């Protein structure tokens, strides 16, 4: 049986909107320090400002509470607050963590290797948003061959 693909994708983009009291500091942190290129920027009445930054490929990670607790424990050693956490894949976990800390982020947990073979660090940006920077230490094919990994479709 073959599944027909729709002529157009039902979703074209995932956009996460972060409200930042200090807009300029947030732009300096995400665009200038983390290196997310600016796609567009707009200004409006009442000093309304927005900058749309390209974060590469987007995924939406859905976790149940047990998974959220486990990730918090693996990355930080303790339970973190509720809410949305942004995660950015980088090529140098240690270097990016240092760079972001120098730009005003609070390091919650230094980079550490996870059971799923990535190097993860947890930080809080200057506006209070928790973020993870992670560096993959093995390719997805190798990871999915190990016990406990794979996709829901492969089960």
Automatic annotation (TrEMBL):
By its UniProt entry, which Gene3D superfamilies does this protein fall under?
A: 2,3-Dihydroxybiphenyl 1,2-Dioxygenase, domain 1 (3.10.180.10)
| Pfam families linked to this entry | Glyoxalase_6 (PF18029)
UniProt xrefs under InterPro entries: Glyas_Bleomycin-R_OHBP_Dase (IPR029068), Glyoxalase_6 (IPR041581), VOC_core (IPR037523)
Name of this protein:
VOC family protein
- Which residues belong to any copy of the VOC domain? 10-136
What highest taxon heads this organism's lineage? Bacteria
